[in-house]
Amino acid sequence: MIETTSTMAAVTASAALQTSWKFLLNGxxxxxxxxxxxxxxxxxxxxxxxxxxxxxxxxxxxxxQMVNFQELVAADRSEPILNEFSKGASALARLAAxxxxxxxxxxxxxxxxxxxxxxxxxxxxxxxxxxLDIVITVxxxxxxxxxxxxxxxxxxxxxxxxxxxAIARGIAEALNTTIFxxxxxxxxxxxxxxxxxxxxxxxxxxxxxxxxxxxACQKATPHS
Length: 224
Prior knowledge:
mainly alpha
């Protein structure tokens, strides 16, 4: 039973692979840039998933410690969290390190220093979004270009002896590039919306935590 299931799965996978390969071949030369576009789009999506992970932006453990920063300073137990800041393993740690370096200054000065560094961190958070924008725009256009090119070739070869079935088959094959272009763009659009919203949420959380830290640094003088 297990061997039969494995054989059926292998046959199904082989048939799907052959169908996909035939689909790409029927699309013509424009399938090459479309394949490259799809690789770039998937790479950008994977990169954003990794770069916007909780551990790289706002680690939960560090965020909890920052909430109690004043208490840690008062209890002379701030050394571990200061070490985390100095390591700079996350966006929160790097910005918190800026606030701590300006401790003892007026809160406005601390906030200005943090905001200056936050602009650089924000640009890092948005890295890769521009690539998705390009893929979303270019993929459907390449698909339409491939379809238009295929239709021109079909119509140039028309004659009185041409079979209508052959024409229909040729048009269907010419539309393959449009289908592929849209198939690339749709997941990129969804990913773009998700990442944009996640950046907004993470940025708002960073602002809240760093505002509290700036207030604490205004009054506290942690041991370093």
